[in-house]
Specification:
- With 473 residues, the protein is an alpha+beta fold.
- A hairpin with an 8-residue loop joins strand 3 and strand 4.
- It is globular and about 60 Å long.
């Protein structure tokens, strides 16, 4: 590895994602949806191959406006623009420079976290924050200010951003740095302040591509919360899978998983020959058509029972690949198809410390409602970042998936929204496709500042999404 103190090019003119860039000509109006597949709308899709093409597109894309989009992993309607333009940023995917001495990387916004791992892990660097999928772009990670299993230690993604290049509504390109209003509005701003073109990121040094994992079964919610509160600070990564169908004394039973990057001396001799290897596995994709109702209370109940019982009562120090620990679902391409044609709702909220009773009450309501969720996780958040619309605040966050066709789901989630808002909590905009706009100001106290800056920066509404129209952002 280089000991240079200045950024050096990885290659000329950079390291790009594999494959040729897509054409820059706009597609006809096509159906666009989020990963939950619940609210498709039609838009013209344009794939710029350079910042200049992106600027030209923004100047010319018409009265309906548009929004930038990465790899389409926002669950709701944040990267859609009905009747307008969707700017597919995945052709801007070069890694321009890596500084091995300081652990920084300069890359295009269309570079995926998967690609960063491919390039950086062999050099001994890892992304500072990763959500539950590595199939997100750097621009998307900043726009949603994503968080991971290490928020209680490392905060959200924007904390590790040194600078971004932002294309604004007037066609200008600006260098935006932390500590400015524009940065705080852009981090978590869901792409509504402009198009992120590139970013400079701070990385995390690692010795291996393995995680040392401690796992334990937890019999109920109170015990789970006590363990998380007492021991989270001992681990960089911490998360609990929770059984939301369990009731009675088993309410909130869980599998608690915590981990650290494994040091080189923890690896067996064979693994030390190539300690930074990154070889994520892949399973067959579900068929394009999956019958509706496959995931119901019975099938999810059987899965939850199996998953809980197969977990060890207590196990420490198991070595696990990064891909398996952070992104198990990435091994199944198009896993969102398993919910069938109706899709699914990913619902995530956070309530602050001191609101444990609210969390307990909501989990009990979900259990009584028998919501069939097999992807439910509970985590603790640490210090909030500066983003005005960034989701994490110190406290407890629960995320769950629910088949969208479940009877009465909309009214039930509306009730949960009201309970979360009354407790001073909030829902995650990157996963939302249904929140009522009147609840938003109470959840995000800097909303008025965000709207004011947008009105000055983009008075004609050049950057517009289905999410922004629905919530009058």
């Amino acid at each position: 590895m280089s000991a240079d103190t200045h950024p050096t090019p990885v290659a000329e003119p950079g390291v790009a994602e594999p494959g040729p860039p897509p054409p820059s000509a706009p597609d006809p109006f096509v159906s666009v949806t989020g990963w939950g597949r619940t609210a498709p709308t039609t838009a013209s899709v344009l794939r710029p191959r350079s910042p200049a093409e992106a600027a030209e597109a923004v100047r010319d894309w018409g009265v309906r406006g548009g929004i930038a989009r990465g790899l389409g992993r926002a669950y709701g309607d944040a990267a859609q623009s009905a009747g307008g333009t969707v700017l597919d940023m995945t052709a801007l995917r070069r890694i321009h420079a890596i500084d091995d001495a300081t652990g920084t990387v300069v890359c295009d916004a269309g570079v995926s976290l998967h690609r960063l791992m491919e390039v950086l892990l062999p050099l001994g660097w890892f992304v500072p924050v990763t959500p539950g999928t590595r199939q997100v772009t750097v621009g998307g990670a900043i726009g949603a200010d994503v968080h991971g299993k290490n928020h209680h230690i490392s905060g959200s993604f924007s904390r590790h951003v040194h600078a971004i290049e932002l294309l604004t509504a007037d066609g200008g390109i600006h260098t935006v740095v932390p500590g400015t209003e524009l940065f705080d509005a852009t981090a978590g701003g869901m792409g509504l302040t402009g198009v992120i073109l590139s970013a400079t990121l701070q990385l995390h040094r690692v010795e291996t591509s393995l995680i040392s994992v401690d796992t334990e079964r937890v019999a109920g919610l109170d015990d789970l919360m006590a363990r998380l509160a007492a021991t989270d600070h001992h681990y960089r990564y911490s998360v609990a899978w929770i059984d939301l169908l369990a009731r009675g004394r088993s309410l909130g039973r869980a599998v608690l998983t915590r981990g650290e990057h494994a040091p080189l001396d923890a690896l067996p001799a064979r693994a030390r020959r190539n300690p930074l290897a990154f070889r994520p596995g892949q399973l067959p994709a579900p068929p394009a058509f999956v019958p509706a109702g496959l995931l119901n209370r019975t099938t999810v109940g059987l899965f939850n029972e199996f998953w809980y019982r197969r977990a060890p009562r207590s196990r420490t120090g198991r070595l696990q690949r990064l891909s398996a620990f952070f992104h198990p679902l990435d091994a199944v391409p198009h896993w969102n198809r398993i919910y069938g044609r109706d899709g699914f709702v990913q619902y995530q909220f956070v309530v602050g410390h001191g609101q444990e009773e609210t969390l307990h009450r909501i989990i009990a309501r979900i259990s009584r409602r028998r919501c069939p969720s097999f992807l439910a996780v509970l985590k603790r958040f640490g210090e909030a970042g500066p983003g005005w619309l960034s989701f994490p605040v110190p406290g407890w966050t629960l995320a769950l998936d629910i088949p969208a066709g479940l009877d009465g789901l909309g009214a039930f989630l509306d009730e949960l929204d009201e309970e979360v808002a009354a407790a001073g909590g909030r829902v995650y905009l990157a996963k939302d496709s249904r929140l009522r706009p009147e609840l938003l100001a109470g959840m995000y106290p800097r909303l008025a500042d965000f709207r004011s800056l947008r009105s000055r920066l983009d008075p004609c509404g050049v950057f517009t999404s289905d999410l922004s129209r629905r919530l009058t952002l």
